[in-house]
Design a protein that fits this description.
- The complex is a heterodimer of chains A (354) and B (248).
- With 354 residues, chain A is an all-alpha fold.
- Chain A has 19 helices and no strands.
- In chain A, α6 packs across α13, α11 packs across α13 and α14 packs parallel to α17.
- Chain B is α/β, with parallel strands linked by helices and 248 residues long.
- The longest helix of chain B is centred in the last third of the chain and has 17 residues.
- The two termini of chain B are 28 Å apart.
- The chains are: A mainly alpha (354), B alpha/beta (248).
- At the A-B interface, α1, α11, α12 and α19 of A face α2, α3 and α6 of B.
Chain lengths: 354, 248
């Protein structure tokens, strides 16, 4: 009875919306950021090992950002996937296959599969229940790795990881030269993927689910399948991050599964700004450098300044560093404080209509 | 109900009983509406008007009866499937996505059809002016427009409006009513309108039902009910010309 058939009346839903297309465009500051990631090669060649740690942590934080920042899934056990990937990569190498790239893929798939199984539980809960579940899951996996010492080496760590050169050409060296560019390229590739993902309609749906899952259902998007998808993807990414750590350090310790790691990565993301693509990256840089520096200044109490930093950020920049910067830019441009003087908001104008 | 169209109804409720958990809110609700029809649902607070819409969307527990949508039984269908099949719901609480911009609030709901971003902005020009504003920066009236526009973006065959005029300034009410009238009478969008402003609701719609304690107590053509002061007075306590106090 409808006058037009909805299927033929309008352009296909896959045609990109202009504002989504605009978000995909690269900004100058992004080029600057990625060029700056090459600086350590020149400026601080002694710190390439730290730089590769930062890149790994950034990838891990990015994966947490996908679920926490964009889909609103709280997790206190994200290290489970990082550690699972780390052990998977280590074992593959120990069992005689030391090729790094395929090792990465295998580790990612293993962690992704674990994430996929876990996602069925995750999609059923929110908020506090999620914190408990992810926390418990992380602890379970840690103890499992601890007790399966025949497989994992237990508290002694996994021995005998031997990586072949990347692409058969570049050996992992003592100075972390190969390690850094390897970690950086992996980070960049996954960053591109994440960027594409969150600027897609799927990414927008995730943000809708974060804001209001019931409402999303009422406009036709069931949250369960979306959450399962992003959780699996995030687990894959976390697994790859863990694998890069294994491959660049050629060892795996129980620390990869530790609760401390789950907590740290949460702190890093909040520090940088959750729900922002660069939040985890910036957070990782600041946190890791601060940790390195503070522990050099005072090896015993280096967590103290970290705590101060955290409290300061939460008090003064509730949306993280990037959130604070965005607010600052808004203020400087006068959008927030003075904008309405030069161009009155529409409700003022229509209110004065006769 | 009087319907010019004897073909299959767009929607029919058959002896529906529904509620939340143990509580039964609606009992033995039956009505049907034709394609392009419009129904006003009137009644005092707490008689189950919103629950009727929630039941249609699948957010309550349905104990008995069935809901037929375009010839298909959707009684057990998940809410998102109902939305996909063409039922658009504008909740009383509006439930704007606070941290998405106006444009994102709309595009997140987009589904192919006549209503796209441009059409929605044509319909509510004010939203276009505020397209980059976050949901939580909008005024109440703008939020209501956005909630309505967002439901339209799903290109619904039937729009459920839950007290769209609640708490809005008169000038905004006027603008919104103008929009709704255009939608219902000119464009023939099927609408179920829950509203406290009985006169506005009746002037917008073709038919009306009156709810009392979870049951339909009166069916009428809206135009007739508008003149039937006695009935309105009895069921909604509308203060009409004769000045009788509302019956308890």
């Amino acid at each position: 009875m409808t006058p037009t058939d909805p299927a033929t009346a309008a352009p296909a839903p896959t045609a990109p919306h202009p504002h989504m297309a605009a978000q995909v465009r690269w900004r100058t500051v992004e080029y600057v950021f990625w060029l700056a990631t090459l600086l350590p090669f020149v400026v601080a060649p002694d710190y390439l090992a730290l730089a590769s740690q930062i890149a790994i942590t950034a990838l891990f934080a990015l994966s947490l950002d996908l679920i926490l920042g964009y889909a609103g899934i709280v997790s206190l056990g994200h290290a489970a996937f990082f550690g699972f990937g780390a052990y998977a990569a280590g074992l593959v190498s120990k069992w005689g296959w030391g090729e790094p790239l395929s090792g990465l893929l295998i580790a990612g798939l293993a962690a992704g599969l674990l994430g996929y199984l876990m996602s069925f539980v995750i999609a059923r809960f929110r908020h506090l229940a999620l914190i408990m579940i992810t926390l418990g899951f992380g602890l379970l996996l840690l103890e499992a790795a601890n007790s399966a010492s025949g497989l994992t080496g237990g508290a002694d760590g996994l021995q005998g990881v031997k990586m072949w050169p990347v692409l058969g050409l570049f050996k992992f060296d003592l100075y972390g030269f190969t390690a850094y560019w390897y970690a950086l390229i992996v980070l960049f590739v996954f960053f591109l993927m994440a960027r594409r993902l969150i600027n897609s309609p799927f990414g927008l749906s995730l943000r809708g689910i974060r804001e209001n899952p019931v409402r999303m259902r009422a406009i036709g998007a069931e949250s369960g399948p979306h959450i399962r998808k992003i959780y699996t993807i995030a687990a894959f990414m976390a697994g790859v991050a863990g694998a890069v750590l294994t491959q660049t350090t050629e060892t795996v310790s129980l620390g990869v599964l530790d609760f401390q790691r789950s907590a740290d990565i949460l702190v890093i993301l909040i520090l940088g700004g959750a729900g922002r693509l660069y939040g985890g990256l910036i957070g990782a840089i600041i946190y890791m450098i601060a940790r390195d520096w503070f522990s050099g200044v005072n090896p015993q109490y280096w967590y103290f300044p970290i705590g101060v930093l955290l409290i300061a950020v939460v008090l003064f920049l509730p949306n993280g560093m990037l959130g604070g910067i965005a607010q600052l830019i808004d203020t400087v441009r006068g959008r927030r404080w003075f904008g309405w003087l030069t161009s009155p908001p529409p409700w003022l104008r229509s209110g004065s209509k006769p | 109900m009087a319907s010019p169209n004897s073909a299959e109804p767009l929607l029919s409720f058959k002896n529906v009983r529904a509620g939340y958990g143990e509580a039964i809110v609606l009992d033995d609700i039956s009505f049907e509406m034709p394609e392009r029809g419009s129904i006003a649902v009137l009644g005092r607070n707490g008689v189950g008007k919103s629950t009727l819409l929630l039941t249609l969307m699948g957010f309550t527990q349905l104990r008995r009866g069935s809901i037929i949508w375009r010839g298909t039984d959707i009684t057990r269908l998940a809410p998102h499937r109902r939305a996909q099949s063409g039922i658009g719901w504008v909740a009383q609480e509006r439930e704007i996505f606070a941290n998405l911009t106006v444009e994102e609030n709309l595009t997140v709901a987009a589904r192919p059809g006549r209503w796209d971003l441009d059409a929605a902005f044509d319909f509510f020009p004010r939203l276009k002016e505020r397209r980059q504003s976050k949901g939580n920066q909008l005024s109440g009236g703008e939020q209501q427009m956005l909630a309505t526009a967002r439901a339209l973006m799903t290109n619904p065959a039937l729009l459920l409006l839950d007290e769209p005029l609640e708490g809005l300034a008169p000038i905004i009410v006027e603008e919104l009513v103008r929009g709704l009238r255009k939608m219902i009478t000119e464009e023939g969008t099927a609408v179920i309108l829950v509203e406290q402003h009985a006169e506005v609701a009746l002037s917008l719609t073709e038919n009306a039902v009156l709810l009392e304690r979870g049951a339909i107590v009166h069916h009428a053509r809206s135009a007739d009910l508008l003149k039937d002061h006695a009935t309105l007075d009895r069921y909604i306590g509308l203060r009409v010309a004769d000045g009788k106090p509302a019956q308890a």
